[in-house]
Amino acid sequence: MTSTEPLHTDSIDSSTGKPADGVQATSYRIPRGQVNSKLSFYKAPEDGSAPFNYVETPPEGQPQRNFGEAIADVEISDIRGRESEFTLDNSAFEALSNIQSNELDFTDDNRIKRVYYPEVERLLLKYVAGAQRIVLFDHTIRRSAPDANRAPVTHVHIDQTADSASARVRLHVPDEADTLLQGRYRIINVWRPLNGPVYNPPLAFADGSSVRDEDIVGVEHRYPDRTGETAGVKYNPGQKWHYWSGMKNDERILLKCYDTDETVGPHGRVPHTAFEDPRTPEGAPNRDSIEVRALVFG
Length: 298
Prior knowledge:
35% strand; 4 helices; mainly beta; 298 residues
């Protein structure tokens, strides 16, 4: 069942002159419930070569990426109202509500690291079972403006693979890597909107337990100074896709990209992508968001 509901304008925070954290002052109706949308999945390079993607401008004569896309119409269910059904261990994602932040602008990277990073670290230590140590290694702000540095990603992907996860440990904690690699480690993204509620494009994520090993394809992720690896995802009809309608600024989605302990759930990774909701009200604002990536030890 699909539906929309009104969002009432909230009062302005007198200390900041902005809408209260968690809401965006607007009268647009938020689409709710199940929706069907076309998602872009991985299609292998036609010449049989190994897939790659350049993070920045590619060298002259090279494409941004050498693999194609396979479009599939996918049913996406709304987790709003049943958030507690999903956990990092059973689905590779988890929804958290009523998370306050002292960072409101998200325009200064140094302030983000000084103010928001410690909040994310405390959140992960509190809500991720077994977490003993957190290393936050980067963040990405995505904006929908035409001149934005990074826009929402509109193809299904996973940020890390087993190889790139272990490489991240060696890159970010080199002196302790040999010891840390012997224990459990996870890579978890903490995703939130900056101008909620989210209208377009929402974030879709697949239940990790519905994704087969053979659906996942390693893709060279070429930075200017090194090469990492992400994962493309092939479509299969058994995948179960979800979104969280009208996400607010005080809500967080934890997306597990890798986990060395496969015994806690069938799979330790969650494919995700931005998607177009055909019910989006005309004129509704496009979303801005931030994701912070974390190594979680323990």
